[in-house]
Amino acid sequence: MDKSSKNGSVEKALNILEFFNERDPFYTLQQLSTETGYPKTTLFRLLCSLEKFGYVRRILKNGEILFGLGWVFIEKAALVKDQINLKELARDEMISLRNKTNLSVQLALQDGKEAIYIEQIPSFQPIRIYPEIGKRVPLYSAACPRVLLAYLSHREQEGILSDSKSNNLYQELVRIREKGFAVSKGELAEGTIAMAVPVFDGQKEVIASLSVIGLEHDHIFKDTKEVIISLKIASEAITTKLQG
Question: Boundaries of each IclR-ED domain copy (predicted)?
Answer without folding.
Answer: 72-244
